[in-house]
């Protein structure tokens, strides 16, 4: 259910319902109704606002994050931070390869 995923993601981000509602610009009462599965069909606009406030994709709200190839939201955050900091893909790959090499040396 969408509400359960919203609640889980909100709790993973250590946000209160009030904080999420304020950050997303939605009514706390509506968010509460979604999380409690009283309202089961949120609008696309609501999903966009919530996913943006939680810094996750809309897909993670719509589909079970326990899917085999689903990305951990923390890894997505790290990758986004790397991108905005100006690190290139090549530099990021080099860092990973260096860490692999360093582990092998131990």
Automatic annotation (TrEMBL):
The keyword DNA-binding applies. Residues 62-100 form the Sin domain. SUPFAM superfamilies: lambda repressor-like DNA-binding domains (SSF47413), SinR repressor dimerisation domain-like (SSF47406). Residues 6-61 form the HTH cro/C1-type domain. Keywords: DNA-binding. This is Helix-turn-helix domain-containing protein. It comes from Bacillus spongiae.
């Amino acid at each position: 259910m969408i509400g359960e995923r919203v609640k889980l993601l909100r709790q993973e981000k250590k946000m209160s319902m009030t904080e999420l509602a304020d950050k997303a610009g939605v009514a706390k009462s509506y968010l509460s109704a979604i999380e409690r599965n009283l309202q089961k069909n949120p609008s696309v606009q609501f999903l966009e606002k919530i996913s943006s406030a939680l810094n996750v994709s809309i897909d993670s709200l719509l589909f079970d994050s326990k899917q085999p190839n689903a990305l951990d939201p923390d890894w997505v955050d790290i990758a986004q931070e790397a991108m905005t900091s100006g690190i290139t893909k090549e530099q990021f790959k080099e860092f990973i390869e260096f860490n692999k090499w360093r582990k092998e040396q131990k």
